[in-house]
Automatic annotation (TrEMBL):
Belongs to the RAG2 family. It comes from the Eukaryota. It is found in: Nucleus. Transmembrane segments: none annotated. InterPro entries: Gal_Oxase/kelch_b-propeller, Kelch-typ_b-propeller, RAG2, RAG2_PHD, Znf_FYVE_PHD. Its main location: nucleus. This is V(D)J recombination-activating protein 2. The keyword Cytoplasm does not apply. Pfam families: RAG2, RAG2_PHD. One of its GO terms (cellular component) is nucleus. The keyword Zinc applies.
Length: 528
């Protein structure tokens, strides 16, 4: 075994415990990011491009007839083929947690529609089930078995929230083990049937399951009720005759007490088990080889790689199967890192490079994602393994299409999609640009009332001309709700009285004084 470190060129904060990876035509796709998708990649599905020990993420698209697929963390997923050796397949995704920590009980089918060097398009369809429908859960596994020309899905294990009637304020979001029921799902008729087997007494989660033909092997797992990791190895055989299915469960010796382990296939009959936890605070650094031959299973200890000091001393780790003997391992980054939530990643090669070109993945491996967020109440084993049956081949796409999370702000923090007023109709799923200046976010303006708050310019019925003037001018703006209140609180401005110039007094008419001789002469003439 050899261990090699890889660097994440972009979006390392999206690669958190709980994600899943899909393999279509030898290309690896990421699903289940932390937080809601952004408008640059609304599907939340990315191509993982690994080239020269660098990992890049490039957005993928959905077809127009696809349903909405939320970013589910810790789901159960597997591949569905028409028969065990068929080349074409699609992925089944069930359960998981949304970014709001809500559990999903829905089941989706994802298939590849088209692929070019510039764009990859998927189709995602939600399936309706009847009968004994499994409750919402996470940390479980789903596998496909083939028997007598028929195929069915087998779902087992997981955790769910405490029933509403049993919740208290202090433990509102506490989780419990799901009942140890085995669900058979027939997608041809869309029905589910649950079975209770006496050999399965305790609920399990974060276990490893390997399916081959009509048999499923269940290894390890953690039980919350007993706080133990099961040392049992279960062999579940499903027979699908014309009538009702027949299920038998056998407890085999030689199991391993481990949770959150990762399994990768190195040959048609050989697998390697890596990682996991012995207890809440003890990682499992040993490795094992699993051999399946003639309906028998053999587990032996194998040589472990030279773990780095960072891996040895970290409290938690997580990872996923990359197919053909490759495993992607992640450990938490140092607290001094500039980028928050960043992790370090390694590729573990479980066999020689010359063997990688010979084998193809035929047996379905379904090892469930298994890591809770550090703030959750689940125990330490939740670094959670991931289902990753894919190859680490590079994809020759234009680097200009690489999605960079740093190019846009976190919309959950900046609040572009808030309800700014009672009549606000801005929705992230239906919004289209209204102003010519908008690109992928609605235009907003600050209301200066009180401490200030942001409102959508479109909701305030602002014209584009007024919006541009307000953005350029250094003036205060008040939204429709506070504009009248602001006018009432304003102090009237002091009106300066105009000073009128005083009116000039009327001038007296000057009288002309006549000499005395003239007066006398005038009077004589008047009386004559």
């Amino acid at each position: 075994m050899s261990l090699q470190m890889v660097s994440t060129v972009n979006n390392s904060s999206l690669l958190q415990p709980g994600f899943s990876l899909l393999n279509f035509d030898g290309h690896v796709f990421f699903f289940g990011q932390k937080g809601w998708p952004k408008r640059s990649c609304p599907t939340g599905v990315f191509l993982l491009d690994i080239k020269q020990n660098e990992l890049k993420m490039k957005p993928a698209a959905f077809s127009k007839d696809s349903c909405y697929l939320p970013p589910l963390r810790y789901p159960a997923l597997c591949t569905l083929r028409s028969d065990a050796r068929a080349d074409e397949y699609q992925y089944i995704i069930h359960g998981g947690k949304t970014p709001n920590n809500e559990l999903s009980d829905k089941i989706y089918f994802m298939s590849l529609v088209s692929k070019t060097s510039k764009k990859i398009v998927f189709q995602c369809i939600e399936k309706d089930l009847g009968g004994d429908v499994p409750e919402a859960r996470y940390g479980h596994t789903i596998n496909v078995v083939h028997s007598r020309g028929k195929s069915m899905c087998v779902l087992f294990g997981g955790r769910t929230y405490t029933p509403l009637a049993q919740r208290t304020t202090e433990k509102w979001n506490s989780v419990v083990d799901c009942l140890p029921s085995v669900f058979l799902i027939d997608f041809e008729f869309g029905c589910c049937t649950s079975y209770i087997l006496p050999e399965l007494q305790d609920g399990l989660s974060f276990h490893v399951s390997i399916a081959r033909d009509d048999t499923i092997y269940i290894l390890g797992g953690h039980s919350l009720q007993n706080n133990t990791r099961s040392p049992n190895l279960y062999k579940l055989k499903i027979d699908l005759p014309l009538g009702s299915p027949a299920l038998t469960c056998t407890i085999l010796p030689g199991g391993i007490s481990v949770s959150s382990a990762i399994v990768t296939q190195v040959s048609d009959t050989e697998f390697v088990l890596v990682g996991g936890y012995h207890s809440d605070n003890q990682k499992r650094l040993a490795c094992n080889t699993i051999v399946l031959e003639d309906s028998k299973i053999e587990i032996v200890e194998s040589v472990s790689p030279e773990w780095t000091p960072d891996i040895k001393h970290c409290r938690m780790w997580f990872g996923c199967d990359m197919g053909k003997g490759l495993i992607l391992l992640g450990i938490p980054g140092a607290n001094k890192q500039i980028i928050p939530d960043a992790n370090y990643f390694y590729i573990l090669r479980c066999k020689g490079a010359e063997e990688d070109e010979e084998e193809e993945l035929i047996t379905q491996i379904c090892s469930q994602t298994s890591s809770e967020d550090p703030g959750d109440s689940a125990p330490f084993e939740d670094s959670e393994e991931f289902f990753f049956s894919a190859e680490a081949n590079s994809f020759d796409a234009d680097d200009a299409d690489t999605y960079n999370e740093d190019d846009e702000e976190d919309e959950s923090e900046t609040g572009y999609w808030i309800t700014c007023c009672a009549s606000c109709n801005i929705d992230i799923n239906t919004w289209v640009p209204f102003y010519s200046t908008e690109l992928n976010k609605p235009a907003m303006i600050l209301c200066s009332s009180g401490a200030g708050h942001w409102v959508h310019a479109q909701c305030m019925d602002l014209s584009e001309t007024i919006l541009l003037r307000l953005s350029e001018a250094n003036v205060k703006y008040f939204c429709n709700k506070h504009v009248d209140l602001n006018k009432g609180l304003q102090t009237p401005q002091k009106v300066m009285c105009l000073k009128k110039p005083p009116m000039k007094p009327l001038r007296k008419k000057k009288t002309m004084k006549l000499p005395t001789s003239t007066k006398k002469s005038f009077l004589r003439r008047l009386f004559e």
